[in-house]
Specification:
This protein is α/β, with parallel strands linked by helices. 22% of the residues lie in helices and 32% in strands. Strand 2, helix 4 (73-82) and strand 3 form a beta-alpha-beta unit. The chain binds S-adenosylmethionine (SAM). S-adenosylmethionine binds at residues 4, 8, 24, 49-56, 70-72, 75, 92-94, 108-110, 113.
């Protein structure tokens, strides 16, 4: 996709060096605990929208039968290698219609690419259309308006055995216009292959940002019973329960 960040297009083969599957274990366990709420029947099928490199799925697939949808073919290819037992489908979370229902629907950080209230409404609509009555939707944005902070972080990994690539990056989160519904995350990636020289690539990601009440209103308008929960890392996530059908 030409308007996708470079990380999900020309650089998608590098994604796991930037964001390693092992780093997702705790977050995936937190997500699993909310999806498999012991007060409700145990979910079996799980649809993830914006599944990316399949990092969460690499942990969640032990608990659920997963269908993974992403916009980027490059990211799907990466995830297929990591998660060959999962179903992979190309689609846009705003519009995709699979014609079947799942016990649970999950949208992790990919929901940040919903940049307007209308985008977010459409993604939540997709979650609702694919969620069985009585099922659950879990949405885990990186930030909401109330938790946003401008910051700079850095990271990166060396390739595992047999992969002689290395990445280091800085990530700069900044809101150029606090009165609109977006902010930017600029990445500078330093890429090294074998013992060769470092190549530098700049990549701007434009993320959506909405107040808590907008998230809750959109979930409720769409038909979910919605609540917000603080996660262990200072963020707020949203759980929507689709009411069961009356007998
Ligand atoms: C940070 S990655 C997700 C990583 C994922 N949480 C994991 O566990 O690997 C964000 C993903 O969102 C996808 N994405 C962005 N906009 C999307 C959309 N409208 N529909 C579906 N996927 C989208 C990108 O292609 C990218 O793969």
């Amino acid at each position: 996709m030409s308007d996708q960040p470079k990380l999900y297009s020309e650089l998608s083969p590098w994604f796991h060096l930037l964001s390693s599957p092992a780093d997702y274990a705790e977050e995936a366990e937190f997500a699993r605990s909310l999806i498999a709420d012991p007060d409700f029947p145990a979910p079996v099928t799980l649809l993830e929208l914006g599944s990316g490199g399949g990092n969460n799925a690499s942990h969640l697939k032990a608990s659920f039968r997963m269908t993974l949808v992403d916009l980027s073919e490059g990211m799907l290819d990466l995830s297929r290698k990591l998660n060959p037992e999962c179903e992979h489908l190309q689609g846009d979370m705003k519009t995709v219609r699979l014609g079947r229902l799942f016990d649970a629907v999950f949208i992790h950080d990919a929901v940040m690419y919903m940049r307007s209230e209308d985008d977010l409404r459409r993604a939540i609509g997709t979650a609702h259309i694919h969620c069985k009555p009585g099922g659950v939707a879990l949405l885990m944005p990186d930030v909401i308006q109330e938790t946003f902070v401008s910051l700079t972080t850095h990271g990166g990994h060396d390739g595992l055995a047999g992969d002689d690539r290395r990445i280091r990056y800085i990530e700069w989160t900044f809101d150029p216009n606090p009165s609109d519904t977006t902010y930017t995350v600029d990445f500078a990636y330093l890429l090294r292959e074998n013992r060769g020289p470092v190549r530098v690539v700049h990549d701007t990601h434009v993320f959506g940002i909405f107040p808590r009440q907008i998230w809750l209103d959109l979930l409720r308008e769409t038909g979910f019973e919605a609540r917000t929960i603080a996660d262990p890392w200072g963020r707020e996530v949203f759980v929507g329960r689709r009411p069961p059908e009356l007998e």
